[in-house]
Amino acid sequence: MNKIKYERFENIIIENGLMRVARSPHKLKIPVLDSDLAYLTGYHLGDGYLEDIEKTYGRGEQNYEITYGDFDLEQIKLVSLIIKDKFDFNLRVFKRKNTNMWVGKAGSCKVLHWFLNKQLKIPMGKKNIISIPGWILSDRYFMSNFLSGFFDAEADISKTINRVVNDKRYFKIRFQLTQKDRTILEEIKEILKGRYSIKSDIQRKWNQDVFILRFVGKKSSLIFQKKINFRNPTKRKKLDLLLRD
Fold it and tell me: Which residues does 26 contact at the CB level (< 8 Å), separation at least 6?
């Protein structure tokens, strides 16, 4: 048995390939770092939330909430399946009242919170400045899956007019990643160029305090599809249709 101090109160207990806290009957599997967890990390840094424990302590509470939100139910199902497979833990999936937002949530699970924070290196609280964790940078398969998760969370793909010749419109495919934090977009820009030969640019969104990473063209889109691609079935299908058009 191995006991690990995590924040306050109960320790994390590691025993026989499982993790738990002393008073809880729930035991979660301890997974090995792999491509699915790299994908989950990428998606989480885009659209996930890990409760800031210090803030809950300040309110006299002890919560370890983990939340994912997306307008696409299939995306939440995808994330939920990864967590079920890797940890044998079920997120509660529901539609937020009076919205079109689907949510996958763990109301308070200290051991899962610990693993995401300390093993996957996902920051707690509001993600003002984020970066790609070192364990992902060291493996090209982890990197491609991380990017797949981040693009599933944050990317928009569309076709935009390239030129008009003899009243005929020609289009090009456009990828856009939108983020408040420019730091991670700069990291992704360098990785796209250095590892995948995809050239992109970053600009501040007009009249908003956010940045957009953008790349265009069929060549770059084909490289993305072959080397990274979406896991989200809606976005995956859309890219396929745009490339066939």
Answer: 20, 89, 109, 111
d(C-alpha 225, C-alpha 242), whole Å: 11
Amino acid at 104: G
Distances (CA, A) of 44 to 8, 95, 99, 136, 163: 24, 19, 21, 14, 37
Residue pointed to by tokens 């060549």: 219
Q: For residue 148, which amino acid is it?
A: S
DSSP structural state of residue 119? I
Topology match between the domains 2-119 and 134-244 = yes
CATH 3.10.129.10 fits 134-244, yes or no: no
CA distances from 117 to 41, 65, 66, 93 (A): 10, 12, 11, 22
Reported as a single tens digit per residue, the pLDDT across 165-220 is 566 666 789 999 999 889 999 999 999 999 999 999 999 988 888 999 999 999 99
For the 2-119 domain, the top CATH level (class) is alpha beta
Which of the four pLDDT bands, split at 50, 70 and 90, describes residue 62? low
- Model confidence, pTM: 0.90
CB 156: neighbour CB atoms within 10 A? 14
User: Residue 187: how many CB atoms within 10 A of its CB?
Assistant: 14
